[in-house]
Amino acid sequence: MVIAIIGVLIALLLPAVQQAREAARRMQCTNNLKQMGLGIHNWHDTYGKIPPLMSHVDHQSFWIYMMPQMEQNNAYEMLSGSNANGGNNLNYPSLDNWDRLTDTEKAALASIPYMHCPSKRSGTQMIDDSSNPARGPLSDYAAVFLYRDLYDTASEDGWWNHYFGSNADHLAAQKGALTLARVNESLPGDVRFTQAKPQLSFASITDGLSNTAIIGEKHLRGNEVGKCCGGDGTDGSYMFDAGNWREFLLSRNIRQRFGRGPNDTTPDDMYATAPNTQVGFGSYHPGVVEFLLCDGSVTSLSQNTPELIRRQYGHRSDGTVIANQ
């Protein structure tokens, strides 16, 4: 009888314990995003601009730019030290930087706590297969990207065209708060460059900092965590974009339907009728997806948020008022 009563009590308490644990994990995820917000604001205070999404194809991402502002000076120094060619390593493709690191240094970069949502994973997370172009440390967060204006119904096929900082069309196709740096030439191979300039400041966010999302939780199917970039695997390095067709490593298209947990396969279908259109945001938190807004606050959007509202949050200057969900 006593054993039966204990069993009933455990059955009653277990859901409450699980809910409490998930609440704690979600709070940590929120704190991760807030820390990123502080990093962006510190960077803006220092340079008068929003950090660029990336400086050029295969080069460093905004995550690397922000490391000194997010108490990750050691990680930044690992990536930006001098090299045999004479100059700063950040002037060279990021794969070169990753491959020259020791195993200990790689593990340190792959263990930065704010890059991982604890509802999805924790600890050391990386791909270190020397044949994988997306190798490097992994993250559960991505920049908010929007390729079309608010009421443009054209296909999203082609939204990955945002990786050449010397291409005017690529620069013009970016409607969100994080955009490419502008560079003064098309850069071949490993040629060193120094002129990569951020385009936007907070003044460019005319819809208001509290109405514009800048970073969100990216959707990953449960069986694709840690896998990229064959089949539908979209979980690669946050250090750089790894070339055309892999821009989803750094950013996700907020126009796409939000993922609804690890078993939701639809948003991650890279090879749908329009390639790469389905790589979007999503979370493992029940019912919501967390987003960092440009003012540094965090908002929770329903996994069922309508497309118009998703676009409004993603567009920095659409001039509309976000409707109540």
UniProtKB/TrEMBL annotation:
Q: Where is the DUF1559 domain?
A: 18-305
Which superkingdom?
Bacteria
- Sorted alphabetically, which Pfam families does this protein's record hold? SBP_bac_10
Could you tell me what this protein is called? DUF1559 domain-containing protein
- Species source reads Blastopirellula marina DSM 3645
Give the classification, highest ranks.
Bacteria, Pseudomonadati, Planctomycetota, Planctomycetia, Pirellulales
